[in-house]
Design goal:
Elements: E1 5-10, H1 17-27, E2 32-38, H2 43-53, H3 64-72, E3 82-85, H4 92-101, E4 105-108, H5 116-129, E5 133-135, H6 143-153, E6 160-168, H7 173-176, H8 179-182, H9 190-193, H10 198-214, E7 220-226, E8 237-245, E9 248-255, E10 264-271, E11 275-279, E12 282-289, E13 296-298, H11 307-311, H12 323-338, H13 351-369, E14 375-376
Parallel strand pairs: 1-2, 1-3, 3-4, 4-5, 6-9
Antiparallel strand pairs: 6-10, 7-8, 7-14, 8-9, 10-11, 11-12, 12-13
Length: about 375
């Protein structure tokens, strides 16, 4: 009998980029077996897609509720163990809630929920049922981000003084400047996306990365968001000042109208003894800066890297690793947790990351609406 983890997928059918990303990531370390799914709300399209990617249709279900009910009828040794929730934002909370309440482990796309209150409710359910919950802040899976975290943890930079995180994209430009498009896309519909577009989609990645690599928690924030048009209800650009301590401050800059930018995600951490810089579009380079010394460039796969970084490196030095590999590292960490194997808590973002992320999104919007004032997290 296969010892692979039985894995179910919700959403991610057809030409969904996120669906491909998760399927490739789950296949990387031979830990998961795609066992059942509801890829699409159209049952015929759902079965057709299963045939297209070559999986049996016997556990392709017509809808989510049917899937949970039918899986619970099976013996625990046959039942799906882990579900990935890849649906639009407004479905994350009800699906994750029902899965956790019924004993399933969950891997969820972000934002975790639509509201901070929902996030707290989900956290309480997870604690009560003791399920594994992973939130796919994919960039934490990059080997050199993990190296950055460990170097800061070991005191290489000394006391942290300044953090600067940028996430610039330009993809929404063709939509936002067309009145009909901006009023009909689900991304700009609060009932489907939540109260924030830019901060909810990419700003929360920058916020989570800031706390992940520094090991510190943001205490207060001041946000200035941009909607660009009066009839657009959601932010598509913004700057958030952050305070992590009395003398540790930073900035989060996020935009979906940064014309011609693709996926310009970068993080820089400046300490008393040095600095570290990483860019997602060049993920194999971690730059270490020290006053009076040449810039050092660290690369994945080399023996000078941490155990956590090397565990997430699949290729010898000099061979690029990318976003599929980063997502694969998150799935690898979840597999260790499901199997009760030892794992580093940095191997996958947790429920707590989701709760803090939703708090950040809501507080950013409140800070802006109240006149760009400081707000406690």
């Amino acid at each position: 009998m296969s010892n692979k983890i039985r894995w179910g997928v919700l959403g991610g059918g057809g030409d969904s980029l996120i669906g491909v990303l998760h399927r490739v990531a789950a296949s990387m370390f031979d830990a998961y077996q795609l066992t059942g799914a509801v890829f699409n709300p159209d049952f015929e399209a759902n079965k057709a897609f299963a045939n297209e990617i070559g999986i049996p249709t016997s556990r392709i279900y017509k809808d989510f509720d049917t899937m949970v009910a039918e899986e619970l009828k099976l013996a625990k040794s046959e039942r799906i163990q882990v579900f990935s929730v890849l649906t639009p934002n407004f479905l994350h909370f009800p699906m994750a809630k029902k899965l956790l309440e019924n004993g399933f482990h969950v891997i969820c796309e972000k934002p975790m929920t639509m509201t901070y209150a929902e996030a707290l409710e989900l956290e309480a359910i997870q604690k009560q049922n003791n399920n594994i919950f992973a939130l796919t802040h994919t960039y934490t899976g990059y080997p050199m981000v993990r190296q950055m975290k460990k170097m800061i943890e070991e005191g290489v930079l000394g006391d942290i003084q300044k953090v600067d995180v940028q996430y610039y994209q330009g993809w929404i430009n063709p939509i936002i400047h067309d009145k009909e498009k901006r009023n009909t896309t689900w991304r700009l519909d609060p009932s489907k996306s939540g109260i924030s577009c830019c901060m909810g989609d990419i700003g929360v990645h920058a916020y989570q990365m800031l706390e992940f690599v520094t090991g510190m928690e943001v205490k207060t924030i001041l946000a200035d968001l941009n909607h660009l048009y009066d009839d657009n209800q959601m932010d598509i650009d913004g700057t958030v000042l952050v305070r992590l301590g009395k003398y540790t401050k930073g900035v989060i800059r996020a935009s979906q109208i940064a014309t011609a930018e693709e996926n310009n995600f970068a993080v820089a951490v400046y300490g008393k003894k040095g600095a570290l810089k990483w860019e997602q579009e060049n993920p194999n380079y971690l730059y270490h800066l020290v006053d009076g010394e040449p810039i050092k460039t660290l690369k994945p796969g080399n023996v000078y890297n941490s155990k956590l970084s090397l565990d997430g490196t699949k290729l010898p030095p000099g061979h690029p690793e990318g976003i599929f590999d980063a997502m694969g590292n998150i799935y690898k960490g979840v597999a260790k947790a499901v199997r009760n194997q030892p794992y580093d808590k940095a191997e996958f973002p947790s429920m707590r990351d989701g709760v803090r992320g939703m708090n950040f999104i809501e507080t950013s919007v409140a800070s802006h609406k109240e006149g760009n004032v400081w707000k406690e997290l």
